[in-house]
Amino acid sequence: MSIASNASCIFCKIIKGEIPSFKLIETTKTYSFLDIQPTSEGHVLIIPKYHGAKLHNIPDDYLSDLLPVVRKLTKVLKLDENDTPEGEGYNILQNNGRIAHQIVDHVHFHLIPKKNDKSGLIVGWPAQETNFEKLGKFHEELKKELEKEEKL
Ligand code: AMP
Ligand code: ZN
Q1: Taking the chain (152 residues) in consecutive chunks of 10 residues, what is each chunk's mean pLDDT?
Q2: Left, alpha or beta for 78 (phi > 0: left; psi -120 to 50: alpha)?
Q3: Which listed residue, of 4, 12, 39, 41, carries a Cα 20 to 30 Å from 110's Cα?
Q4: Closest of 36, 1, 24, 6 to residue 107, by C-alpha
Q5: pTM of the model
Q6: Domain named HIT: which ranges (predicted)?
């Protein structure tokens, strides 16, 4: 049972069994099930048993429990059989906020088999022009933020 639960959240209801799901692996902190609108066969969702809309809302112990479940699911889906860069692959996707394509406001990781160009995740990647001076300045700003974070 999740510690933080939201009575109106569809994924909290799935965790509690109040609405049905095609369950796969479940641990004390993680739940996984088939996506009902798959982008490719084997499209799976993996969720923490903790209600939070965005990744930063989820405690570390829930996040630590979740990624090994994703790894086990790659085996269940036989996505681990191709160790070469060519041929079938898979994507892990985790959206935060409407602008980032999040629809359900309970953190979820998509595991999406990528078997061809037409199914699975299709990515837009608008790489921006930059230069080392600009990146260096940004890096300095981030290092200051990191120092503050370390003092917390
Ligand atoms: P996102 O755009 O990252 O918020 O993705 C939400 C995902 O949840 C979509 O891929 C939906 O198909 C999926 N979804 C929504 N409701 C359910 C449900 N009841 N059971 C399984 N998957 C669901
Ligand atoms: Zn929830």
Answers
A1: 81 98 98 98 98 98 98 98 97 98 98 98 95 96 93 66
A2: left
A3: 4
A4: 6
A5: 0.95
A6: 10-121
- Closest residue by Cα to atom 20, ligand 1, is 36
Domain 10-123 grouped into CATH 3.40.640.10: no
| Three-state DSSP state, 24 | strand
Phi-psi group of 60: left, alpha or beta (phi > 0 → left; psi -120 to 50 → alpha; rest → beta): alpha
Distance (Å) from CA 105 to ligand 2 centroid: 7
pLDDT of residue 150: 83
Catalytic (active site) residue 43: no
Residue 34 CA: which ligand 1 atom is closest? 21
| Closest-CA residue to 31 (of 81, 70, 79, 86) | 70
pLDDT score recorded for residue 152: 61
Cβ of 91 below 6 Å from ligand 1: no
Q: Which atom of ligand 1 is nearest to the CA of 93?
A: 3
Ligand 1 center to residue 87 CA distance, Å? 27
> Which atom of ligand 1 has the smallest separation from the CA of 108?
3
Q: What are the sequence ranges of the domains in the chain?
A: 10-123
